[in-house]
Amino acid sequence: ALPILMRILMRYAMLNDASGLQGEMPIETRDTLSTELDIQFEGFASPFNAHLPYYCSLFPDTDELFGSLGSFFNFDFVKSDMNIFQVCPPFIDGIFTQTANKMLSSLEESEKLGKPLGIFYMMVRWRNCESLELLTKSRFNRKHISLIARQHCYEWNQKKTFVPFDSEIIILQNSQSFKEIDIGHSIKFKRILHSLRRENPKV
Fold it and tell me: Average pLDDT of the chain?
């Protein structure tokens, strides 16, 4: 197991050298998602920063030994026992587009099969971003808001940081999920937004 652990460490160390590749949702926000919406899944995480019980990661060949469910792009939302998911992809335009297509195709399939499916999606705002247009124009878009630079947080190196860029939050739900709860217009959603905008709680 030690050689595999060293390989994982080296892989993610190389990624960390690519400054700004990904910021995680703050732990407080992930806890709030779990408490308010029973979200137990992170779409993009690693053995080092996963906080919820289930996660997908970039290197399934090694990460699966540490609980990863494999690649996000191979994950089957329809067959999963879970109904609501959290997705916050790396800041790479091509991955944004792949992620959008994956989510929309899963929403289409799940609706045909009658399975409730909802996704809490967060991404950095990208100029001329194809994926953002795909998602906001989709019939599954139930709520879309923009978060202003320096007024919301990501987690970097286990530290909650107010970031110098705008972000987007999109609530995607098929009709079955939307009938169960209108996430974007609920008090639960307001509590989740509050966790992204507040300072670190004082201990």
Answer: 89
